[in-house]
Hints:
There is one protein chain. Among the domains are: 65-160, Oxidized Rhodanese, domain 1, CATH 3.40.250; 181-221. It has 5 helices and 9 strands. It has helices at 2-18, 21-27, 68-77, 131-142, 154-160; strands spanning 65-66, 82-85, 100-102, 122-125, 148-151, 181-183, 189-198, 201-208, 213-218. It has a 5-stranded parallel beta sheet. Strands 6-7-8-9 form a 4-stranded antiparallel beta sheet, with no helix packed on it. A hairpin with a 4-residue loop joins strand 8 (201-208) and strand 9. The protein is globular and about 65 Å long.
Amino acid sequence: MIRDRLKSAVKRVAIKAFGMEWEAEELAPNESNSKRAAPAEVDPNLIPRVVDGSGDTPPPKHRERIGRTWLASQVISGVPGVIFDIRHPKEVVAGMIPQAILVPGEQIKTRLDVLPAKDIRITIYDQTGSDASERLAAWLREQGWGVARMLQGGYAEWIEHDEPVTRPEPPPGGRYHLGQPVELRTGERGVVQAAWADASVARYTLLLDDGRVKGPVAEAELVG
């Protein structure tokens, strides 16, 4: 007991000698002898906003899924990694997630040229967050893209909560946009899967009605 009293006395002397009153209170904020008064009022504007949702949104480091709120924050901050939209081109006419690359169905399995380095985050999404996007994300992880995840709830949940979207537009000098039906002069029909300008010439990748992917196709090769 004498030793405890001596230690307590030494501590009080040290606090006064070195001006450590603030540090002592920080180290023991719950002690009854703390000199800090409780705040008179709380500013509600300083309380973090609780995002809406069901409460089961996957955390940021979930290995298989990413939640809408996390992906939206990455898109808004400009660092979303690589996003792949695997819907049919006709489904993207109304809009898609900003910066997403349209690679319908399981095309990505034969389009490894569009994939980033294996340490880059990848998000796969479809219309409703179905098994299709989950299976494809799992396949990518098996191939070494360890940070490939599917978007929980898909595009339907994304637009339900008014997250940012982009709507397809023709490339500079072009007439056709993603999802638009087109016909080649050869008689083949399909829809636009990708559209861009190359040296001021509009070019397209087409998803043909028979399931084949054709491109690049120049504007002059299309009828209409």
